[in-house]
Amino acid sequence: MISRLLDWIDDRLGTAHFVSHALRKAFPDHWSFMLGEINMYTFLVLIATGTFLALFFDPSASKMTYNGPYALLDGTHVSSAYDSALKLSFEVNGGLLMRQVHHWAALIFVAGIITHMARVFFTGAFRKPREINWLIGLGMLMLAMFEGFAGYSMPDDLLSGTGLRIAVSILLSVPFIGAWASSLLAGGVFPDSGVMLPRLFVAHVYIIPATIAALMAVHLAILWRQKHTDFPGPGRTERNVVGSPLFPKYAAKSMALFAAVVAIVFAFGAVVQINPIWIWGPYVPWQILSPAQPDWYVGWLDGALRISPPVAFHFFGRIIPSPFWPAVLLPGVLFTFVAAWPWIEAAWLNDRRAHHLLDLPRNVPVRTGIGVAVITFCFGLLLAGSGDIQARYVQEPITTITRFYQIFCLIAPIVAFFLTYWLCVELRSRSGVHKAPRVRLRRNAEGGFDEETIA
Amino acid sequence: MIAKDRVIAAALAAAMLGAVLFIAAYATGGSRLYEGLSLALSAAGLCGAAVGWAFWILPDEQVEDERDDYPSGASDRAAEDLETTSGLIDVTRKRLLTRMLYTALGIFGLALIVPIRSLGPALGDAAFHTKWRKGLRMQRENGSFVKASDLNVDSVATVFPEGAVGDAQSQTVLIRVGDGVAANAGGYIAYSKVCTHAGCPVALYRTAAKQLMCPCHQSIFDVVNDGAVVAGPADHALPRLPIEVGSDGYLRATGDYPEPVGPGFWERG
Fold first, then answer.
1. For a Cys-Cys bond, which of A21, B132, B193, B242 suits B173, CB 3.0-4.6 Å?
2. Measured between CA atoms, how close is B126 to chain A, in angstroms?
3. Could you read off the pLDDT of A161-181 as tens digits, one per residue?
4. Is B265 within 8 Å of A319 when comparing Cβ atoms?
5. Is B158 helix (H, G, I), strand (E, B) or coil?
6. Partner residue facing A252 (CB), from B26, B54, B269
7. C-alpha distance across the termini of chain B, in Å
8. Smallest CA–CA separation between A224 and chain B, in Å?
9. How many CB pairs under 8 A join A and B?
10. Which CATH architecture does the domain made up of A27-286 adopt?
């Protein structure tokens, strides 16, 4: 049956040669090569659940009176967007499950991308010839963050509306074009025009996901063309790649991963509540929640906004206000640094060769140290993003917590770098590969061996 | 069946059971919990079966691929170069037409971008002024007007200019700080409620310290010292609304805010 189908296709497309070779493509067996696939499969879950949500959600800011089963909000003036999100949650069979699965999958999507990038970074898989895929991957990370923020902003609840207010303020802070850029997004002064939700909807369900899908296709095509990297080992060279054949072995493993991703996001969606917008209430520009935190992948920027010093730059009757440094300049510099890293490292080591065999992280102490330092820095910012909650737990004034994280984010990355560097050097020397004394064995007259140490 | 087959069979049975349970959960009214868990069970069963399949049933073979050669050989590169650039140079070099072509494409691209301008008007006056004017009374969200006798000491109210309830830029926090504190009208003092850092409502009033705090990024403003920044990331004071108690007992603005409200921006100066 399948054989006849394949023959039918081959008669028309002549694909037998390609298919038979493609199915035997070698996929290295190390588990870390599957991190990227988590993102591919969460993306599929996001598209499936997101399509379901889009069939019910109405991204309109027009005002109406809520009149539904959630009694605490009965009679409240809300936007159509908020109303339809509540309907999805309480009146559509499966709606709340789909909302929660969608949100959990989004959190995992961004986390998976960063984990995958960390694997690529620490093993040196970004090196020539794979710089293009490094940039495409970084692009997908940034798009995923915007995509997540846009989705989280659409229900027009009090938490998300506040987040949009902050986003508009960040746009406002950009020199020269800030006022203009914020107006392009908000259609005037936030939030009066009401155009923001429909615009976010178009971005969230069409522009950004279509771009991510296109980039993912290119990412995979390049991966296919360049073949996988591989860890060094017996029989592994720069000229070959060894692993399970795509079909059937690797396909079975990959399908297991897909099913695991689906199982986990649905279990989370069933059991762990996320973003209960009926508790936050509808967005009212003069009301606010406390404490208020964004999703984790925006949390580090929120933390940066909290602990950055109140420095505005005045000159010639113009101003660069304080949110610019932590919310525009900092991520700009950070992402530029990450994007440029393959070239920075190649220039620093003067290494322009292609690499297909990976590094063990401990064998590249400086790179590993820099990676851990950057992660430590961002993690410190993320923790600072919930400083007000921590202040409540430890019974300290918020100003003390803020000062702590200001110092932490300056000192901890440096400490982390040197600690990691030292750890790598120690591990490397104990592995016995690089630091073993070089000796020459010389046969002596008695038939035994003498050792001569070579400098 | 051998033992490993039994494990895979059990996983597949779980997958079937989960799917049936999902349909049942959906048909009986749709509990988020049962729908989600049954579907998770089904997927977990499929996952287990696929794992068993991959590690127990399928042959544990390794294949080896040769890596492709790149860069391509010198002759291919030379041919590519000939087709794209060097072969064309004699024809197009230094021709005015070539420069015109690039210019035309550039202007064409610019023309395609310009309509973005329609997305938002220049902020203009709206960024610099609110709807507060001299003589306007203070209106609460419910429409009532604030009289000097309405609030107790240390009470707070959110107010808008008369006739503009809900105008986000004009939202104002009115505090009765009590007599003898700073220069104020009848013990009242009023600030813009839009945080000067990132625009959140400055909604937390700390009575004892007489400070306003923003819940978003914890900027703290001194109510009895002209809204000056005490702590946090805000880089300038909360604008203070000039107010008076009218002869009829209503609180009134004596003008608009003396400076733009909300977060800073380039032209704000």
1. B193
2. 7
3. 999 999 999 999 999 999 999
4. yes
5. strand
6. B54
7. 81
8. 11
9. 269
10. Up-down Bundle (1.20)
Asked if B121 reaches chain A (Cβ–Cβ under 8 Å), the answer is yes
- Residues forming beta bridges with residue B173, ordered by sequence position: B158, B191
Last residue of a domain, one of B34, B57, B80: B57
Beta bridge partners of A441: A451
Beta-carbon contacts of residue B57 (< 8 Å; ≥ 6 apart)? B4, B8
Q: Which residues touch A140 (CB under 8 Å, ≥6 apart)?
A: A113, A212, A215, A216, A219
Number of domains in chain B: 2
Q: How many CA atoms lie within 13 A of A21 on its CB side?
A: 6
Reading the block at residue B253, the tokens are 């603005």
Tell me, yes or no, whether B209 lies in a domain: yes
Q: Which domain holds residue B28?
A: 3-57
Contacts of A177 in chain B (CB under 8 A): 266
Q: Which of residues 140-179 of B touch A (CB under 8 A)?
A: 141, 158, 166-169, 171
ipTM score: 0.93
pLDDT per position as a tens digit, A112-122: 999 999 999 99
Task: Name the band, by pLDDT with cuts 50, 70 and 90, for residue B69.
Answer: confident
Q: For residue A294, list chain B residues with Cβ-Cβ distance below 8 A.
A: none
CB distance from B199 to chain A under 8 Å?
A: yes
If one counts every other C-beta atom within 10 angstroms of the C-beta of residue B120, the result is 20
Euclidean distance between CA atoms A187 and A332, whole angstroms: 25
